[in-house]
Design a protein that fits this description.
The protein has about 140 residues and is an all-alpha fold. It has one domain: Four Helix Bundle (Hemerythrin (Met), subunit A). The protein is built from 8 helices and no strands. Helix 1 packs antiparallel against helix 2 (about 25-45), helix 1 (about 5-20) runs antiparallel to helix 7 and helix 2 runs parallel beside helix 7. It is globular. It starts with a helix and ends with a helix. The relative contact order is 0.19.
Length: about 140
């Protein structure tokens, strides 16, 4: 799996989430929307990987997680994320909501409101998390 694969997966998963949301399949929409962010963050990590460089074991191990906050740290986005949340209150609200996503969501029931809110927090064209991540992937 390479960076372009992860970018394509992020786009595919958010599109699938939209279809599920539009058809009242809120649990799947919620799970796949969060998974799209996970893929986007992993694409950011992949972008920083140098060809023929032997990777740091801790960084590799830390990359194999579903924890969005941890992935943002591994992608070295902490400072940019902090700046964006301080300057952009809409993004701050969105990120706060998105970072609460967990892969355990696949075992949970979610409300239509939660699924819609997560999807909107990720896809908002001006302040959404996915739009912001695309600057770094």
């Amino acid at each position: 799996m390479n960076r372009s694969d992860l970018q394509r997966l992020a786009r595919t998963r958010i599109n699938e989430a939209k279809v599920l949301l539009e058809n009242g399949r809120y649990e799947g929409a919620y799970y796949l929307a969060g998974y799209a962010v996970e893929c986007a963050l992993k694409a950011c990590i992949a972008k920083q990987t140098q060809r023929q460089e032997f990777p740091d074991k801790k960084r590799v191990d830390d990359s194999y997680t579903h924890d969005l906050a941890k992935l943002a740290r591994v992608a070295n986005l902490e400072n940019d994320l902090k700046k964006e949340t301080q300057l952009n209150s809409a993004f701050d609200s969105y990120w706060s909501f998105v970072v609460g996503w967990s892969e355990a969501a696949r075992y949970q029931f979610v409300t239509p409101e939660s699924a819609t809110n997560l999807y909107n927090a990720i896809t908002d064209r001006q302040h959404g998390v996915l739009s912001w991540l695309k600057k770094y992937w």
